[in-house]
Design brief:
With 115 residues, the chain is mostly beta strands. 8% of the residues lie in helices and 30% in strands. A hairpin with a 2-residue loop joins strand 6 (92-96) and strand 7.
Length: 115
């Protein structure tokens, strides 16, 4: 079994998900939004009206990057498994096997959380 750079970018979650055959092109990034908390640490359930849309997500797959007009190759600045901050709106919604993920361009991602 040979390990390639593409193989190294696939996370364990993605191997079991419906998105295992979806490989982003150019500078696209496949992201699964992280569900907001529905229960407090004390065990109190929050009503749905108080639960805000989550702006955080986990990177499932990353495209190889893109070439500029001058021919320079630019790699994507996030890696599989990173937790990122997303804009409230945007991204292309992708559904497969009852699961939902989003495709974002790398320049649409607002920030990456430090590990």
């Amino acid at each position: 079994y040979k390990s390639t750079s593409r193989t190294n970018r696939v996370c364990k979650y993605r191997e079991m998900s419906a998105f295992k055959n979806l490989i982003p092109l150019a500078d696209r990034v496949l992201i699964k939004r992280i569900s907001p908390m529905t229960k407090t640490l004390g065990g109190i359930l929050l009503p749905e009206s108080n639960i805000a849309k989550s702006n955080e997500g986990e990177v499932l797959a990353v495209g190889p990057g893109y070439k500029t007009k001058t021919g320079d190759f630019v790699q994507v600045s996030v890696a599989v498994g990173d937790t990122v901050l997303l804009p409230e709106y945007g991204g292309l919604q992708v559904k497969a096997g009852g699961e939902e993920a989003f495709l974002f361009r790398s320049d649409e991602i607002l920030a990456k959380y430090a590990k």
